[in-house]
Each structure stands twice: as C-alpha cells, then as structure tokens.
TrEMBL record:
<feature type="transmembrane region" description="Helical">
    <location>
        <begin position="81"/>
        <end position="103"/>
    </location>
</feature>
<keyword id="KW-0472">Membrane</keyword>
<feature type="transmembrane region" description="Helical">
    <location>
        <begin position="48"/>
        <end position="69"/>
    </location>
</feature>
<feature type="transmembrane region" description="Helical">
    <location>
        <begin position="365"/>
        <end position="394"/>
    </location>
</feature>
<feature type="transmembrane region" description="Helical">
    <location>
        <begin position="169"/>
        <end position="188"/>
    </location>
</feature>
<feature type="transmembrane region" description="Helical">
    <location>
        <begin position="208"/>
        <end position="225"/>
    </location>
</feature>
<feature type="transmembrane region" description="Helical">
    <location>
        <begin position="140"/>
        <end position="163"/>
    </location>
</feature>
<keyword id="KW-0812">Transmembrane</keyword>
<dbReference type="InterPro" id="IPR002797">
    <property type="entry name" value="Polysacc_synth"/>
</dbReference>
<feature type="transmembrane region" description="Helical">
    <location>
        <begin position="326"/>
        <end position="345"/>
    </location>
</feature>
<feature type="transmembrane region" description="Helical">
    <location>
        <begin position="406"/>
        <end position="426"/>
    </location>
</feature>
<protein>
    <recommendedName>
        <fullName>Polysaccharide biosynthesis protein</fullName>
    </recommendedName>
</protein>
<keyword id="KW-1133">Transmembrane helix</keyword>
<dbReference type="InterPro" id="IPR050833">
    <property type="entry name" value="Poly_Biosynth_Transport"/>
</dbReference>
<dbReference type="Pfam" id="PF01943">
    <property type="entry name" value="Polysacc_synt"/>
</dbReference>
<feature type="transmembrane region" description="Helical">
    <location>
        <begin position="109"/>
        <end position="128"/>
    </location>
</feature>
<feature type="transmembrane region" description="Helical">
    <location>
        <begin position="282"/>
        <end position="305"/>
    </location>
</feature>
Amino acid sequence: MFSSSVKRLFSNSLIFSIGTLGTKVIGFLMVPFYTYFLTQGQFGIVDLISTTVAMLTPVVTLSVFDAIFRFTMDKNFSNKILFSNGLVITVIGSIVTLLGGIIAQIVGYQYGFLLAILLILSVTSSFLQYFVRGIGYVKLFAVTGIVGTSLSAILNIMFIWYFKLGINGYLYGMAGAQLGTLILIVAVVKPWQYIDFGLVSKTNAMMLLRYSVPMIPNAFAWWFTNDANRFFILFFLGASANGIYAVANKIPSILTIFFTVFNQAWQISAVDEYESQSNSTFYSMIFNNLIHFSFLGMAGLLLILKPLMHVLVAPNFYSAWEFVPFLMLAMIFSNLSGFLGSTYIAAKMTTKLFSTTIYGMLTNIAFNAVLIPLIGLNGAGLGSALGFLAVMIIRLKQTKAFVTINVKWVPLTIHLVITALMYATLHLQNQMLMFTLLIMFFIITLALAGKDVVVFLKQRKAAK
C-alpha cells in the first residue's frame, strides 16, 4: 500500500490538476485565435507585457504572498495576524505601483497606466490565492484558475475580434480575468473576517518580510533566467522574431501544465515531510520520477510536434516548430530546479535560493549574448537550457546541507540520449522510427519509475 505521504501528494495533485489542466487547455486553445488576429509583432509585444507583469509582481509586494503561504502552513500563527499584515504590505505596494504607472503614462509610455492596473490586480490576486491555498481552500484555488482563464478567453475574443482593439484588447482581457478571480475569492472566503488592523505591527510585518524579501532577488533572477532572452531577441532579431519565439514557447508550456499541477501539491508535501527522518528517501524518489516522466513527456511532444503546429497556429507562425526542442529541454531543467527550490522553502532557507539563481541568470545571459547572434532563436532556447541546468546542479549540491537528494545519473543520461535521437529523427521526418523510440522510452520509464517506488515503500516500511 502507498504511504500516507504519497497518498496526500496524489490527492492534492488530483485536485490541482482540475484547475490547472482546465486553465492551460483553454489558454492553449486560444493560441490559434491569437496567431490569426494578432501579427507577429503584436504578439511579441503582448508577450513582453505579460512577462513584465509576472516579473514585477513579487517586487511590488516584496513577495509577501510567499511568506503568507508558508506561515499559514505552519499553523503556529493566527490567520488574522498573517492576513492583516500581508494585506497592509500589499496595499502599500499597490499605491506605489499606481503612482509609478501614472508617472510612466505622463512621460510618454503608452501602456504605463494599464500596466500598473494589471500589476495591482496581479499582486492582489496572488495574495488572496496564496492565502486561501495555505488555509486549506485547495479546491477553490483550483477553480480560480479555470474561471480566470475562461474570462480571459471570452474577453479577448470580444475585445480583439469584435471591437478590433488589438494589443489593448488583449490587456483589457487580462485585467478582466484578474478582476473576476478576485471577486470569486472574496465571495467564497469573505476575507474581511481575517482583517484586524489592531494586529498590524512592525514586529509582525518584519516576521513576514524576513522570509519573503530574500525571495525577491531570487524571483527577479529566476525571471531573468527564464524570460530575459525575449529582450535579447528583441534587440538582435526584432519584435516579429519575438512573436515566433512566444508561439514556440506555447508547446513546452504543455510540460509546465503537469509540473504546475504537481508542484502546487508538492509544496504542501515538502513542508509536511521536511521533519520526517526519511525525507531524503521521499524527496529522492519523487525527484527521480519527475525526471523520468518529464523526458517521456518531451519525447511524446516531439512525436506530434509538426502535426500539432499545423493545427495550432496560422501558417506564418508554423516555422516556430524548429525552436521548440531546446525550449522543452529548458523547461524540463527549469521544472527540476523549481522542485529543488521547494526544499529551501520547506527549510525556511530562502536566502540561499538567490545565490543559485544568480549563477543560472549569468549563464543564461552569457549564452544568449553569444548564441542568439550566431544561431538565431535556437540560441535563446539553448541558453535557457544551460542556465537552468546550472541552477539544478548547484541546488543539488547546496541542498545537501538540509536534505540529501540522490539523483540517478545513468537514467538521466539515457533519457538525454533518446530525446537527442528523436530530435535528429524529427529533421529526417521518419515518423515510424520516432514512434519506435517513443515506445522504447515509455517501457524504460515505467520500469525505472516502478523500481524507484518499490524501493521507497520498502524503506518506509522498514523505518516504521
């Protein structure tokens, strides 16, 4: 029988999968719409704006929502203390953001005020979502994803297709979706019951900020490792190339769908299991299985890549398939690095996260600066892959101070070899050979994963 740890992780993953899969499927189905009604340049611009909002969200609120989630999981602190102090910090950050947006608009930045509104809605939504997840509303957290994405799709169709608003229509849709999510959470949770401004104090606020502030440079550096290549592409290749790159990135996001589902549940399990004496065994088993199934997912996507692109995008975006494989590899290493990052959160050692991400950021910047002028958009994907690989290796070494994760390097090498063969076969256009490789990959993955689980359960049973 599975241990309670595995059951809890599976149960939470199932709940989060409902929201995340619904969210990503809707977003994925909208790609043909965007590629038909937005030019390559327009799609490149909205992608940059979306990326900027994601980058600035933790900066605006000093990443306090991360602290809110972690401390609500502890059950040692009053929810009113956490919510009230976190709310004040979020409001102050929102006011500063609004003033900054107004100033940006006045000095001539076309999207300054709208960007500020998007940021305020994003930080408020993040704050509430992390809080409700921390206090146990996992089903509501899952549903908010579907509601937000559905609203975004409906509003984007209305603003872009019916009203012909182009870029502004896309941004209005983003804002409306965030607002809808906020209204849903407020209606269900009634967060005003957790507000007590008498509990707001410098001591309580600093308790949260001591945890969250070190997350800011890490989040910024993580964003730089993940998304800075868009600015290199814009500089070296132009907005249209960035539009192609944004579309190519949609395919690897399929891998992120499943990792996001898993990681939302894993963050809870990582905290629960951290105090366990057998946490090393549990963490190692989960990490190695994550490697197995990530590369299997990549292999499956390589098999259907070209037919999928024919269906998914307008003809002038079809060339994006050429840049997908390196982006998928980057996404895998990003997800593996993110998994290791959760161990720092469980150990409350957020200050150490930043140093690891910085190395990845510098690696990514260096390779982007060299490779994009040399090999074009594939240089961006390869640079990101090398950056996240650097983060993963450094974190594996650093986390040994509080949890040992034993990586099985031979299976990882086998996975890399098979995916490299499939990548080469993709250019040969031999579908039968690719299918044969995928079946072989599937059998190897199931055998390795099954062995890991059996070993873990035996060790857990012996420990009891």
